[in-house]
């Protein structure tokens, strides 16, 4: 009977494709939007993840994220270095600046000043050039997404910039995770960054700390807080704060939430309507089967198989669509590094199952309520 | 012993006693059947005839176990079908009753042979084996060459034969037909009736046909006329005034 159920479903091609479209579209919308949402949120932690060697970030107690930070006095660095368990501690500066290209365009950029001696604070990899270029005068390294944004289709190497009225020369391209706002990021030595970013007496944004062998980052951060009165967080804690900041301070979760909800509602509406039409068109056949002697349980199995088949194929198509979307846009700076966390297909699978169960149940009620005697009317 | 005496001794295919059926229409209760007592014998082609609204469809639905009577008993080949559990009643229908519906109700997306095989598949028979038996039944009905066609590729008469094959493929003891000739011309209608008699009527089987079609009245073994929920005529011919 299940074979008959499948043939009944696939035989009505228009409705079969309509059902597949409904599930696939819904799955695509839910999976794709959740993927973009999660990846965008994770960019709130990009500043932290780009500095993979730092175990602990030390900052002013009011600082919240890599981009929302209150400057520390330069003495903080020595204070932190004096805490037992600290293997190394380096200064890290983050500030905003304006840059004028040789074409006269103005661009807001982020300046990151990394430790002069160790260059801790740079992203791990370089796409072009090496980190040594920072020893040359007025050198800056630009992040890859920023390079594409400021110099589309051309190499930025050797380009001269007017950075806060100072001369800067791009001498390398870093492979960095873009920031939430995809701002152009220029990396330079800490001492050089101080020149580029005039301002208040205190300009040290963070102290990056490496834990000594055998020292746990969490206990070290607690010890630093206790002994310096500064705020210290492990890399993961600070990354989480970056994500939380976006959740708490932007309308993004709400907007994406609405889109995901719409995806679900559209799925329920399209699938529900099409499935009900399919059942209604076949109600005489179901009634005949019931009269002939097919049990309600078998009929329920038939409807369940039809719903399950549509659900699985539609879900597969929707997830494939999302994979295709992410792959197609993988070279676009906006979507750099985007991936589909394994939890998201599970969530969309749960949503699809909910859609199928809901619409299948409504359709099944119609079949169950059909009296076999109706076939004689 | 006379033929009538033989019939009296045989177990009836269907026995109804005091069957009534009420329907609710808003606040009003409408009695459609008024205490019908009826014995249908095996080996007979029995017609149930009457005007629209006379209660034919209700009667036939009750006799084949798909509509519960408000009151009364119905026995089919000695089984009090409405004392069975729901599952047993469904199974009883599957094993013992074949249905031919006025609109055929074939499944449009499976071919003629698979449509005819539905009762066997529902009984749990392997699909290919069921199909083989269905093709053999279609062969008896002279449409084996159409076995692989979908219902919408068949003429009305051919669809009717597929529906007949579906009703007979599992060799039920009772075949119930609703207006089997309504959509057919006179010649095709008579051919269908001949077929039904040939393959459906046997010593231990019975065929009941609900019909309006006076072109085939002469083919019946017995004609029951139903008027306003009561049997008003029981004989081998139609009464003069009909």
From TrEMBL, chain A:
It is found in: Cell membrane. One of its GO terms (cellular component) is plasma membrane. Residues 259-372 form the ABC3 transporter permease C-terminal domain. Residues 43-226 form the MacB-like periplasmic core domain. Pfam families: FtsX, MacB_PCD. The chain crosses the membrane at residues 16-41, 256-279, 299-330, 342-364. It is a multi-pass membrane protein. Keywords: Cell membrane, Membrane, Transmembrane, Transmembrane helix, Transport. PANTHER family: ABC TRANSPORTER, MEMBRANE PROTEIN (PTHR43738), HEMIN TRANSPORT SYSTEM PERMEASE PROTEIN HRTB-RELATED (PTHR43738:SF1). This is FtsX-like permease family protein. It comes from Pontixanthobacter aquaemixtae.
TrEMBL record, chain B:
InterPro entries: AAA+_ATPase (IPR003593), ABC_transporter-like_ATP-bd (IPR003439), ABC_transporter-like_CS (IPR017871), ABC_transpr_LolD-like (IPR015854), MacB-like_ATP-bd (IPR017911), P-loop_NTPase (IPR027417). PROSITE patterns: ABC_TRANSPORTER_1 (PS00211), ABC_TRANSPORTER_2 (PS50893). It comes from the Bacteria. Pfam families: ABC_tran (PF00005). GO terms for cellular component: membrane protein complex; plasma membrane. Residues 14-241 form the ABC transporter domain. Keywords: ATP-binding, Cell inner membrane, Cell membrane, Membrane, Nucleotide-binding, Transport. Belongs to the ABC transporter superfamily. Macrolide exporter (TC 3.A.1.122) family. This is ATP-binding cassette domain-containing protein. It comes from Pontixanthobacter aquaemixtae.
């Amino acid at each position: 009977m299940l074979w008959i159920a499948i043939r009944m479903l696939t035989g009505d091609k228009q409705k079969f494709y309509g059902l597949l479209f409904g599930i696939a579209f819904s799955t695509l919308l839910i999976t794709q939007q959740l993927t973009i949402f999660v990846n965008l949120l994770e960019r709130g932690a990009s500043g932290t993840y780009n500095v993979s060697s730092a175990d602990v970030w030390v900052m002013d107690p009011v600082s919240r994220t890599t981009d929302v930070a209150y400057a520390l006095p330069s003495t903080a660095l020595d204070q932190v270095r004096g805490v037992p368990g600290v293997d190394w501690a380096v200064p890290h500066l983050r500030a905003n600046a304006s840059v004028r290209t040789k074409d006269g365009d103005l661009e807001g950029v982020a300046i990151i000043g990394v430790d002069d001696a160790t260059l801790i604070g740079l992203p791990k990899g370089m796409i072009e050039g090496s980190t040594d270029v920072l020893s040359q005068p007025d050198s800056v390294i630009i992040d890859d997404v920023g390079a594409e944004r400021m110099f589309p289709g051309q190499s930025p190497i050797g380009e001269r910039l007017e950075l806060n009225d100072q001369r800067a020369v791009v001498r390398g391209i870093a492979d960095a995770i873009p920031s939430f706002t995809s701002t152009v990021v220029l990396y330079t030595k800490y001492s050089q960054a101080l020149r580029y970013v005039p301002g208040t007496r205190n300009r040290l944004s963070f102290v990056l700390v490496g834990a000594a062998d055998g020292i746990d980052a969490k206990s070290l951060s607690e010890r630093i807080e206790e002994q310096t009165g500064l705020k210290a967080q492990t890399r993961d804690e600070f990354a989480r704060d970056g994500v939380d900041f976006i959740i708490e301070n932007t309308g993004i979760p709400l907007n994406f939430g609405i889109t995901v909800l719409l995806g679900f509602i559209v799925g329920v509406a399209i699938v529900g309507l099409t499935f009900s039409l399919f059942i209604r068109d076949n109600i005489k056949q179901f009634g005949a089967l019931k009269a002939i002697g097919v049990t309600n349980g078998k009929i329920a199995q038939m409807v369940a198989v039809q719903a399950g088949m549509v659900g699985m194929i539609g879900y597969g198509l929707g997830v494939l669509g999302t994979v295709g979307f992410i792959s197609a846009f993988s070279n676009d700076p906006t979507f750099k590094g985007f991936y589909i966390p394994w939890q998201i297909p599970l969530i969309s699978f749960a949503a699809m199952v909910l859609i199928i169960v809901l619409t299948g149940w409504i359709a099944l009620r119609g079949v169950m309520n059909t009296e076999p005697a109706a076939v004689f009317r | 012993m006379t033929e009538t005496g033989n019939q009296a001794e045989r177990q009836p295919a269907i026995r109804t006693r005091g069957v009534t059926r009420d329907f609710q229409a808003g606040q009003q209760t409408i009695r459609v059947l008024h205490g019908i007592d009826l014995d249908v014998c095996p080996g007979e082609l029995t017609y149930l005839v009457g005007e629209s609204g006379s209660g034919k469809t209700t009667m036939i639905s009750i006799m084949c176990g798909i509509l519960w009577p408000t009151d009364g008993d119905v026995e089919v080949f000695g089984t009090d079908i409405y004392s069975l559990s729901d599952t047993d009643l469904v199974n009883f229908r599957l094993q013992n009753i074949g249905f031919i519906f006025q609109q055929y109700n074939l499944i449009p997306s499976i071919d003629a042979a698979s449509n005819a095989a539905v009762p066997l598949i529902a009984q749990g028979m392997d699909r290919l084996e069921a199909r083989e038996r269905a093709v053999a039944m279609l062969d008896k009905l002279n449409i084996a060459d159409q076995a692989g066609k979908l219902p919408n590729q068949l003429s009305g008469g051919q669809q009717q034969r597929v529906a007949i094959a579906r009703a007979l493929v599992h060799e039920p003891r009772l075949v119930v037909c609703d207006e089997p000739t309504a959509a057919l011309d006179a010649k095709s209608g008579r051919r269908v009736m001949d077929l039904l008699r040939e393959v459906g009527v046997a010593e231990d089987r019975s065929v009941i046909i609900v019909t309006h079609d006076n072109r085939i009245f002469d083919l019946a073994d017995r004609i029951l006329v139903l008027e306003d929920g009561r049997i008003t005529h029981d004989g081998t011919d139609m009464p003069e005034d009909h």
